[in-house]
Amino acid sequence: MDSVFVRGLEFEGNHGYTAAERRGTRRFRVSLVLELSLEAASRSDKIVDTVDYWKVSETVVRLGTQSTFKLLEALAGAIGHKIQ
Fold this sequence. Notes:
about 80 residues; GTP Cyclohydrolase I, domain 2; alpha+beta; 4 helices; about 25% strand
């Protein structure tokens, strides 16, 4: 397995356990470690053989800004399910 690091994605979101925490937006920062094989991409030099980092970043920001979670663990789980 290879690792790709996507660091410092930032967005404003309404996450928090209490209703008061969810009323106002706060800044969140997400960093990801994607573990996958990059063997095919290293041989072909074609984008279709690798992960689209733009789409991964877009998915994280979309979930963070358009959804609301009480627990950060739930947000992290939703991100993981969407990008796998």
